């Protein structure tokens, strides 16, 4: 049996061989692009790291495998990373971008890190597309049980806009949970409508791109709108609402720009500028788009253990506008609506089931008051905490999506609202 000292010596030798192989691989593919291979790349593949080390490791592995012209200087941009479950930018996904830029600037002098803007996209850059999600343990993609994450998985790929191909395959790193803040950033926290459609699905697919594969047309078609949205988010979160409105409007006119993020932005900017009718029109456009796509989720905030909306008008003051638009736009369609209430994990399963259904029924009554035709075309049910999106159970604004009300349209023959919808039991 080997001694502990011989095992340690063998492990050290293996580590040295791994380090030399990693450096050689980086030099072989990027040549003059490499200055000093980052030491964080030496960490074991399935070990949870600090956020700094994990992002540096991920970036290094991606660039080490990248198939690019060694002698040519290239531009790299980071398409803002998102949370896989919600599609939101969060505090941690936003914190990753400057860390990518720092790694590139320190170790790859022939790669220019540029901001994700329309001007940068005109230069046909390499795009780093990344995502993050909580997992049960480092080295697995399994979701955590009981709402507690024991690590966070981050993964990304590199897409070359010049060729329309992935030039580096999906790479993965693991982050310690204490380094991760999953709070949504201001724009996503303020957005009233949630959906993963409108470019988010294409982004998630691109995160897992494989070397040599063609980048999906859906992603390429929406990337310029995404850059305009990104500038709009920056302007909105800085309080520059007229500039934000102009950027969101620009995004709406670009290919792939008719998407919820854009209309959320137009709504929010108009609301902040006290342009009430324009804001309501933008919310109505979101409702139309969501119902056409088959799914609408609205972030209504209720009092704890209650079916009453939160009384603070800074929170719920726009709810009558939202309800009016949902009622009017739904009422004008020949569809039935299934309203689904959700709760956070707090409380017993039976109590959560009952509370979520009561909240869905409350919203249904609000709609029927505004559009009586919906009385025979709506049905409410509760699903308690069985379908969380965030799943942390913090019961604050960070996991608001877990206490949402969803609206699912179905073909409707005019059944009574107290009876099941067509095709349901």
Structural description of this entry:
- By secondary structure, the chain is an alpha/beta fold.
- It has 3 domains: 30-206, no CATH class; 239-293, no CATH class; 294-425, 60s Ribosomal Protein L30, Chain: A.
- 42% of the residues lie in helices and 16% in strands.
- The protein is built from 13 helices and 10 strands.
- The protein has helices spanning 4-30, 51-65, 91-107, 118-121, 186-190, 200-207, 217-237, 241-252, 260-272, 276-293, 313-316, 319-331, 349-370, and strands at 74-83, 111-113, 126-135, 151-160, 165-175, 193-194, 296-298, 335-341, 378-382, 405-411.
- A 5-stranded mixed sheet has the order 2-1-3-4-5, sandwiched between helices. Strands 6-7-10-8-9 form a 5-stranded mixed sheet.
- Strand 1, helix 3 and strand 2 form a beta-alpha-beta unit.
- The protein is globular.
Question: How are the elements arranged and paired?
Answer:
Blueprint: H1 4-30, H2 51-65, E1 74-83, H3 91-107, E2 111-113, H4 118-121, E3 126-135, E4 151-160, E5 165-175, H5 186-190, E6 193-194, H6 200-207, H7 217-237, H8 241-252, H9 260-272, H10 276-293, E7 296-298, H11 313-316, H12 319-331, E8 335-341, H13 349-370, E9 378-382, E10 405-411
Question: How many β-strands, per DSSP?
Answer: 10
How widely separated are the two ends? 64 Å
Characterize the biggest β-sheet.
5 strands, mixed
Helix run count: 13
**How would you spell out the order of helices and strands?**
HHEHEHEEEHEHHHHHEHHEHEE
Query: What shape does the CA trace take?
Result: globular
Tell me the structural class.
alpha/beta
β-strand percent reads: 15-25%
Assign a percent range to the helix content: 40-55%
- Output the strand order for the largest sheet: 2-1-3-4-5
Radius of gyration: 24 Å
What's the quaternary structure here? Answer: single chain
Unreliable spans: 1-37, 414-425
Give the count of structural domains: 3
Taking all residues together, what is the mean pLDDT?
A: 85
């Amino acid at each position: 049996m080997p001694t502990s000292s011989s095992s340690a010596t063998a492990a050290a030798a293996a580590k040295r061989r791994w380090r030399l192989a990693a450096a050689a691989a980086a030099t072989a593919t990027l040549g003059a692009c490499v200055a000093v291979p980052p030491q964080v790349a030496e960490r074991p593949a399935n070990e949870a790291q600090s956020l700094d080390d994990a992002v540096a490791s991920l970036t290094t592995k991606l660039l080490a495998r990248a198939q690019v012209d060694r002698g040519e200087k290239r531009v790299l941009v980071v398409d803002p990373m998102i949370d896989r479950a919600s599609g939101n930018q969060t505090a941690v996904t936003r914190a990753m971008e400057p860390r990518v830029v720092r790694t590139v600037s320190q170790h790859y002098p022939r790669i220019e890190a540029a901001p994700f803007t329309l001007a940068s996209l005109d230069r046909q850059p390499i795009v780093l597309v990344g995502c993050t999600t909580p997992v049960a343990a480092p080295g697995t993609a399994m979701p955590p049980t009981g709402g507690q994450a024991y690590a966070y998985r981050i993964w990304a790929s590199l897409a070359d806009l010049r060729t329309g191909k992935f030039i580096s395959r999906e790479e993965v790193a693991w982050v310690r949970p204490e380094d991760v803040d999953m709070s949504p950033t201001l724009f996503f926290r303020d957005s009233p409508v949630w959906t993963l459609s409108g470019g988010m699905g294409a982004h998630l697919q691109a995160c897992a791109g494989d070397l040599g594969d063609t980048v999906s047309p859906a992603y390429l078609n929406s990337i310029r709108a995404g850059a305009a949205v990104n500038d709009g988010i920056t302007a909105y979160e800085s309080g520059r609402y007229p500039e934000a409105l102009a950027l969101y409007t620009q995004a709406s006119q670009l290919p792939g720009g008719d998407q919820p993020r854009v209309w959320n932005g137009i709504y929010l900017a108009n609301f902040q500028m006290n342009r009430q009718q324009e804001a309501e029109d933008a919310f109505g456009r979101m409702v139309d788009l969501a119902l056409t796509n088959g799914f609408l989720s609205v972030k209504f905030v209720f009092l704890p253990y209650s079916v009453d909306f939160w009384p603070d008008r800074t929170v719920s003051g726009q709810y009558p506008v939202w309800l009016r638009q949902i009622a009017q736009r739904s009422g004008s369609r020949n569809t039935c609506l299934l309203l689904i209430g959700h709760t956070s994990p707090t409380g017993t399963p039976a109590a959560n089931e009952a509370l979520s259904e009561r909240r869905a029924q409350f919203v249904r009554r609000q709609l029927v008051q505004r559009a009586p035709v919906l009385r025979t075309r709506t049905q409410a049910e509760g699903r308690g905490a069985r379908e969380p999106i965030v799943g942390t159970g913090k019961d604050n604004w960070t996991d608001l999506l877990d206490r949402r009300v969803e609206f699912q349209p179905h073909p409707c023959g005019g059944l009574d609202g107290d009876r099941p919808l067509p095709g349901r039991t």
